[in-house]
Design brief:
Length: 226
């Protein structure tokens, strides 16, 4: 009996050590992934998406290119990962907006609030990555759909609270249309931001410049294009 307890105790100690070691490895992996995303966001903002290489990002994060590819199959996949990581905080922030706020205003407010939670401010999602750089590839459609669906889910919840008597099917359609129009506004602002023509004496573009374009784009939606 004593031997059995001793064996069980030894197993429990080893299990605890294994879990602790796994926890350390997971934390290290999460930190490396975060460093890669931060480095990429900074370099995209400083150099531009096309001019930044995987080698540059890896060196800035203090890892090898081989390590980079353990986390992301390509530079584009790194951007996609940032977009998908952005969806949960975006949904939370849209849900937190004032109950009487119009849908487009809620999405815009949610976008800006969620962006403040990203490492490096507006991060990869908003700074320095030309939308057309992600216009091809098998994952693009799924990533954009995930982004749109996240907004639609958040809006559907808001609409349910504001219009509880509206049929669920109609509410889902309205949320879907509003979400996809919102993403179109974001892409329009991105295109305007990344294709601007600066003069030699103009200051470098800033996060505030892009935020201003977002406000303009959503104003177009709210006005019905008038």
């Amino acid at each position: 009996m004593v031997e059995n307890w001793a064996v069980q105790d030894a197993r429990d100690v080893q299990d605890a050590r294994d879990k602790q070691e796994m926890g350390r490895r997971d934390r290290k992996k999460a930190a490396t992934r975060r460093d890669l995303l931060r480095s990429a966001a900074r370099m995209f903002a400083e150099r531009g998406y096309q001019e930044t290489t995987v080698k540059d990002i890896a060196a800035a994060a203090g890892v090898t290119e081989r390590t980079f590819f353990r986390y992301f199959p390509s530079k584009e996949d790194l951007v996609f990962a940032e977009i998908l990581d952005f969806v949960p905080p975006l949904k939370e922030e849209i849900a937190r907006r004032p109950a009487d706020e119009p849908p487009y205003a809620a999405v815009l407010g949610g976008l800006l609030a969620a962006a403040e939670r990203l490492d490096g401010g507006l991060g990869i999602l908003f700074v320095g990555v030309p939308p057309r750089a992600m216009s091809t590839g098998p994952r693009r459609g799924g990533v954009l759909a995930g982004f749109e669906d996240g907004i639609a889910e958040a809006l559907a919840g808001r609409l349910a609270r504001r219009s509880p008597d509206e049929p669920a099917r109609s509410r889902a359609l309205r949320a879907s249309v509003l979400a996809r129009a919102s993403v179109a506004a974001v892409r329009g602002a991105l295109i305007a931001f990344t294709t601007r023509e600066d003069g030699p004496t103009d200051p470098p573009p800033s996060v505030e410049d892009f935020a201003g374009l977002l406000h303009e784009a959503f104003a177009v939606l709210s006005s019905g294009g008038e």
